């Protein structure tokens, strides 16, 4: 009977072989493999730990782990992997099957108590005859910190640390969701600082930034824990008041906000005082969505700023309709500027002693295809608010020069300038280009400015005015006697003409007080060698009174309304008889 084949017994595996999970090798090869593993494990720059699968005891650590955690090898061997964790998450191998494990994120505690974030990669193996887990630990603390910082910056204002619009909308949505099922209201207050730009312009942006941080700190100090605070833009903040039961609650908070902001701020040795205005919208009456409430509160803020700064205003339904009409005007005005639709109309300036026309003032007109002629009072404020006034003013200047060059050589053209045109910085070049392209002599161009421009007392403004006058252009002060009128303005620049505002000319013959003011202005003009022009002349009695006081020029409906350029030449041809009849 044949013998059964004898079984060949496999060599006994060592711990390192079981560790690697590989079949037994001849002794020489085994030693080489063990040396390779020790090199891979002990000398690896990545912290590595072997822990028991059953009780989580630390069985082995490499030098990188000792250095990274700050525990000695003997201290490590007294720990469990769970004792290193800042909290008790699911272990990386729990519930998984297979040998390789994807990365999990843990938070560990180092020997010095510092918290570190780790991406853990794990692998099951056998170590010293028992199931074990090999952990490779990638420190991602700095990456997590950078990610958290990026997340914070994406949701907060970098200057004040307050939530920005994105985070504010999330908070508002949460607050609105909680209050929809109750009788409570949510008040949204948009707070705008008054004249903040003046602080930046006079004291610098550094002081302006410190002021904004100071305002944010004061606002936080009086809000409840359930209220939300955010910064929208340069000088606007939003407060969301939850739990309001009536508008009076929002009004009470608005008064407190205005009071706390109004106290002086001591910033780098400067005592800075700033005011604020507030617009208020309340849910659900003014909207039940965050964007609508913010928009309506902003409309109410515009009302508060326009009516009386330093106060608050509640949203009213008519505000939205007015805002939509304004937006429509802005959109159509942009199209009108781009399509070259705007036209100058010309109102004559008449010499009161001879009745002859000496020049024309160019007044912008907007012929609308559907609405007819739109009043400048309707679109000029929009143009100034949106910056379109620069394009409108440049267009009128070029067209007026092109038209005037066709008139007789002794007839001038006057063009109004907005203070905003001086801030752009290219006004001198704009005027020179208009004169060069048209061929109009500089002495026939008259530029009218208002006292508002001189309120700035800017060296750049005065330098521009002197440069224009050096070209030969005449400079006129328009609407003299209104607003911030001051004789110091006449001393700051040698004007060629002063135009008396029409409010002093209206019913002049029957108003002794107006007569005294006009007489003083005319006397002042004579002393300064400045031409005096009266605006808004409508009756012969007013003409006679002005002429008796020595006023040189008049302008108004009595002489002519503003006319398109096509009618100017015929008006000039008939001027002698026309003018003489009016001032006789």
Describe this structure in words.
- The chain is an alpha/beta fold.
- The protein folds into 3 domains: 44-143, Beta-Lactamase (2-Layer Sandwich); 158-315, Reverse transcriptase/Diguanylate cyclase domain (Alpha-Beta Plaits), CATH 3.30.70.270; 337-583, TIM Barrel, CATH 3.20.20.
- Helix content is 45%, strand content 23%.
- The chain is built from 23 helices and 21 strands.
- The strands form 4 sheets. The protein has an 8-stranded mixed β-barrel, surrounded by 4 helices.
- Helix 21 links the parallel strand 20 and strand 21.
- Helix 7 crosses helix 8, helix 8 packs across helix 9 (247-262) and helix 15 (427-438) packs parallel to helix 17.
- The longest helix is centred in the middle third of the chain and has 22 residues, at 317-338.
- Residues 5-24, 95-100 and 577-584 have low confidence and may be disordered.
């Amino acid at each position: 009977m044949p013998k059964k084949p004898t079984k060949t017994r496999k060599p006994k595996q060592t711990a390192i072989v079981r560790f690697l999970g590989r079949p037994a090798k001849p002794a020489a090869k085994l030693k080489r493999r063990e040396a390779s593993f020790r090199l891979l494990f002990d000398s690896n720059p990545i912290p590595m730990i072997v822990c028991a699968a059953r009780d989580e005891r630390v069985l082995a650590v490499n030098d990188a782990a000792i250095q990274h955690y700050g525990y000695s090898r003997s201290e490590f061997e007294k720990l469990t992997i769970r004792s290193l964790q800042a909290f008790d998450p699911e272990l990386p191998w729990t519930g998984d099957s297979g040998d390789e494990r994807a990365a999990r994120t843990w938070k560990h505690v180092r020997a010095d108590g510092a918290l570190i974030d780790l991406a853990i990669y794990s692998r099951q193996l056998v170590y010293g005859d028992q199931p074990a887990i090999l952990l490779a630990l990638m420190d991602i603390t700095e990456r997590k910190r950078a990610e958290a910082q990026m997340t914070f910056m994406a949701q907060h204002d970098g200057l004040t640390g307050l939530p920005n619009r994105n985070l504010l909308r999330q908070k508002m949505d949460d607050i609105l969701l909680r209050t929809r099922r109750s009788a409570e209201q949510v008040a949204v207050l948009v707070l705008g600082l008054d004249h903040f730009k003046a602080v930046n312009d006079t004291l610098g942006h550094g002081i302006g930034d410190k002021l904004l941080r100071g305002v944010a700190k004061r606002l936080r100090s009086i809000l409840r824990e359930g209220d939300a605070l955010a910064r929208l833009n340069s000088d606007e903040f939003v407060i969301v008041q939850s739990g309001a039961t009536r508008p009076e609650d929002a009004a009470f908070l608005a008064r407190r906000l205005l009071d706390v902001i109004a106290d002086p701020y001591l910033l780098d040795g400067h005592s800075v005082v700033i005011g604020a205005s507030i617009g208020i919208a309340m849910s659900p009456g003014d909207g039940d969505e965050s964007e609508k409430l913010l928009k309506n509160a902003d409309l109410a803020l515009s009302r508060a700023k326009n009516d009386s700064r330093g106060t608050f205003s509640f949203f009213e339904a008519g505000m939205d309709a007015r805002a939509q009409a304004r937006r429509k005007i802005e959109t159509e005005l942009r199209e009108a500027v781009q399509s070259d639709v705007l036209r100058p109309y010309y109102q004559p300036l008449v010499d009161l002693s001879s009745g002859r026309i000496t020049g024309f003032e160019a007044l912008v007109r907007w012929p609308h295809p559907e609405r007819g002629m739109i009043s400048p009072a309707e679109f000029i404020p929009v143009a100034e608010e949106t910056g379109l006034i620069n394009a409108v003013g440049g267009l009128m200047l070029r067209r007026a020069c092109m038209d005037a060059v066709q008139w007789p050589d002794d007839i001038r053209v006057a063009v109004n300038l907005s203070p905003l045109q001086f801030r752009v910085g290219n006004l001198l070049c704009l005027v020179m280009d208009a004169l060069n392209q048209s061929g109009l002599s500089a002495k026939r161009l008259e530029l009218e400015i208002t006292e508002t421009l001189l309120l700035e007392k800017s060296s750049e403004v005065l330098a521009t005015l002197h440069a224009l006058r050096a070209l030969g252009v005449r400079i006129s002060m328009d609407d003299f006697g209104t607003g911030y009128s001051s004789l110091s303005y006449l001393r700051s620049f040698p004007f060629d003409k002063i135009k008396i505002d029409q409010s002093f000319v209206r019913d002049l013959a029957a108003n002794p007080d107006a007569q005294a003011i006009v007489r003083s202005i005319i006397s002042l003009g004579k002393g300064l060698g400045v031409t005096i022009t009266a605006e808004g002349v409508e009756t012969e009695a007013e003409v006679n009174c002005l002429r008796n006081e020595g006023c040189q020029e008049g302008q108004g409906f009595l002489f002519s309304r503003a006319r398109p350029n096509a009618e100017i030449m015929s008006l000039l041809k008939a001027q002698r008889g026309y003018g003489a009849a009016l001032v006789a």
